[in-house]
Every structure is written in structure tokens, then in C-alpha cells.
Amino acid sequence: MKVVSDHIDRIRDALAWLCSSNPRLNEFGRYCTTFGLQPQRFLTDMPVRWNSTYLKLLNCLEYESPISGFYNMKMSELGRPTLTPDDWHVAKIFVQFLKVFYDSTVTLSGVYYPTSSLIIHHIVEMFELLNNYREDEILGPVVVAMETKFKKYWSEIPFLYALGVIIDPRVKLSGLETLLDYLRENLSVDYSAQVTDIQTKLFEVFSTYERSAELTSYLEAQFDSREKGFELLVWWKTYGYYKYLILSHLAQDVLVISVSTVSLEQVFSTTERIDEERRNSLTPDMVEVLACVQDWEHAKKRLQNEMVDEQLIQNFSNLYVEESSGSNQI
Hints:
Blueprint: H1 2-18, H2 22-33, H3 50-60, H4 64-78, H5 85-108, H6 119-133, H7 140-154, H8 159-166, H9 172-187, H10 192-206, H11 213-220, H12 232-237, H13 239-243, H14 245-255, H15 264-268, H16 277-280, H17 284-300, H18 309-316, E1 322-323, E2 328-329
Helix pairs in contact: 1-5, 3-5, 3-18, 5-6, 6-7, 6-9
InterPro entries: hAT-like_transposase_RNase-H (IPR025525), HATC_C_dom (IPR008906), RNaseH-like_sf (IPR012337)
GO molecular function: DNA binding; protein dimerization activity
């Protein structure tokens, strides 16, 4: 990872130097216009939150030419190290690599749409990314370490995640088997016993109902997977409800469960969470009460798991600089 961080640090230092002086920033703004770009200011990212580094790099890649041109011109005059094409090459690869994790994290952290039916798809997508970068000269060593941890956590698939996939009429049990077959081939983990166990548990649940044949009918039915604008929860509240009454109630119970109860800020943070002494002394029951009350209050205001990155995205975007008398208007 040091190879990557060295290149990223050089870009980070260049941007910090660039924005540390108002006259310098104004001069850079005029330099940007020669490239047909609107003058831009770049905020300092937070190294302990990898999403801020991702957003910062994503935002500044468009300005590679003016940043390198202006910074290298000034550094050459001072006899100091300059930015190289390799720095930007590594940054582009790093951004492409992080994008899948960033998009998956944001999607799976949602609470106002079903996520239990999505997580295995994202697991496959993330592992496919690791598979593609395994032999990469820059990220290869990092990927090997990530694959080891990935295998540790996903050698077993929780029943809830499997059930979420099965109740998607476009995927169902056969689709789940296809997804797990891909992971089996690449992770060297045999999921066949888990698939059998999942199927057994599913039919055990339905065996308690008089309409147990409903599950078999659903699994064998063919659905058009090409429908545009398909909404899973709406499907189960309408068509699925009238066609598969019992299964629709089960589906709605499963689909309202969020696969992640961790805030986005904690997900993106690379630091350990520290509880102050007062919080650390709370009993488990009291912690549960406080967590529930907070969640209920957020639910009233539709702020559960609020998309904290929206503000961060705005901070890293549209920071256009207007030259003024010694100050920046942002």
C-alpha cells in the first residue's frame, strides 16, 4: 500500500500547497482558464476517511493538466520535486478501484429501499473487482491481503441474505446458485451444502402453512427480468400479493430489514471507534434503549442513516473560485 500512498501523498501535498495562499489560488484560477476549465479550489481530505480521499481524487482528476502544469512550473523554479505522470496514473487506478466499494457502501447503507436482496450481488461485484486486480502491479499486493479477509467473512452466507435474493422474482433460488457458483470457483469455497440448507429451511418455514405449494409455484414460475423500472417491494405489494399471498408477507418482512446498521461515517472511517468512559459504562439494555430512541427520532424526520456523504460530495464539488481583492468567493 505504501507504493500507492506515496503517489497519493504527492498529489495531496500539491493541492494543499496550491490552496494555502489566496494570491496563488487566484493565479491558478487564471491558469485553469487557459485549459478551458473553470477555476477550482480543492479541499483537504481526511486520510482516516477513505471516501473523502476518493471524492477528492475523483474531483481533481479532471484538472490533472492545470494542476501539474502550474505546480511543476512553480516547484521547478524552487528546485523542488514535481508531480509525475506516474502519480496521476496511480491516482486514476486507485479511483477506479475504490469506486466499486464506494458505490456498494452507499447503496447497502440505504434504509428507505430494500437492501437485503442486493447484498450478495454486491459481494460478487466486489470480489470480481479483486479478481481483476489480483495481478495488478500496483494494487496486487493489497488485493491479496483483501482476498484473505474477504474469504474469512464470506465463506458462509447468512440465511437472510440468501432469502433476500430468493424473493426477488428475477433471481430466485436458481439465480442464488449461479451467484454462489461464481464465488465458489474464485474463492475455492464449496457453497453446495449451504444452498441445500437454505432450501431446506425455506421449505420448513412454508410447511407450517396450509398453502405450502405456493412456494413451489413461485420458484418454478417464469418472470420477465428485463422490465425497466422494476421495484421489488412494489411488486410484492401488488402482483406478488395477489398471486402469492403468504410468500408476499414473508417477502415484505425480509425486505424491510437493513443489511447494515452502521452509519456511513463509521463505514468510511479507517480509525477504531473509541467509547468514552461514561458511554462504556452503560449496560447493554440501556445502550439498546438509547439506540432505539435515537432511531425512532430519526425515523420521524426521515433521517435514518442520513446520507452524510451528500454534504461531503458538495464540499469537494463546485468549489469554483472567483478572483476578488485578496479573497476567494466560493
